[in-house]
Structure formats: C-alpha cells, structure tokens
Amino acid sequence: MKALVVYATRTGSTRTIAELIGEGIRFGGADAEVKSVSDIKNESDLMGYDAYVFGSPTYHGDMMQSMKTLLFLAEKAGLSGKAGGAFGAFGWSGEAPQRIFETMRNIFAMNMVSDCLRLKSAELGGGVQAAQGYGRAIAAKIAG
Ligand SMILES: Cc1cc2nc3c(=O)[nH]c(=O)nc-3n(C[C@H](O)[C@H](O)[C@H](O)COP(=O)(O)O)c2cc1C
User: Fold this and answer.
1) Total domain count for the chain?
2) pTM given for the model
3) 33: pLDDT confidence band, cut at 50, 70 and 90?
4) How remote is the CA of residue 34 from the centroid of ligand 1, in Å?
C-alpha cells in the first residue's frame, strides 16, 4: 500500500505539512512518497499509488498555479475510487485546501477522508500531531 503526497509551496510551510503527513502515513503502516509539484511532469508520474494527498497554500484567495496544473494532469490519471486528502498552510482564509479537496471528490470521484487539513503558519509547530494524524487517517482509508 503506497500513498503519494504532492505539495506546492512558496515559502516552505506547505512542504513541512506534506512531510509530516508522509510520516503519519508511515506510522499508519503504509508507504509514502512526498514530492514537489515540479517533480510531477506527466500523468504517468501519478500512476501506481493507492492514495493521493495534494496540498497548496492560499495566496490571494486561491491555490498556486502549479497545483491547478497538477489537478488538470490528475484528471487524466484515472484516480476514481482511490483514497484522497488535501492540505495547505494559510494565513486567514485558506480557500486552497478546500478547493483541492472538492475537486478530488466531485471531479475525480475519489474516496476522500472526512475533511481537508488547514494549518496556519503560526500553528505549524503545534500542528505536528494534526498533520501526522491526517497521514494516519489516509493510511486507514487505504486499509479500508
Ligand atoms: C501576498 C500574500 C497573499 C496571501 N494571501 C492569502 C489569502 O488570500 N488567504 C490566506 O489564508 N492566506 C494568505 N496568505 C498567507 C499564506 O497562505 C501563508 O503565509 C502560508 O503559510 C504560505 O505557505 P507556503 O510557505 O507553503 O507558501 C498570503 C500571503 C502573502 C505573502
């Protein structure tokens, strides 16, 4: 059982969350690969995983452009029924994780965990358990 965690980031906070989610997935008994969106060049890079967790910070009320591009790639990768989750660092409004989550559920028809994970930059330290817990929930979703 293997999960792919893909993050976009500008200043590194969402990468930190991605790495913690990856740890949580491993604690939960599954394998996890954590990659930057820039490492995903075509849809074949998305194939062969049991779960997908996509993350972007919110800038100007939106996800980063690189995550939008990834979602268009993912649309072609046939992720229907796979386990899924979404996350991101934010400052005050945090639209990006929710929009990623809804796209994965409504367009890709993925088997999503209960909600997205949003962490404020100031909470990143205290958010370790939340992020690892999110990873555990992904691992549990894969296990069914
Ligand atoms: C120019 C600018 C615009 C931002 N716009 C938003 C926003 O609309 N909503 C929000 O919740 N946070 C906003 N933020 C805060 C970022 O989401 C926050 O700093 C986040 O931790 C950045 O994550 P990253 O380190 O992964 O890039 C903004 C930050 C900057 C610098």
Assistant:
1) 1
2) 0.98
3) very high
4) 21
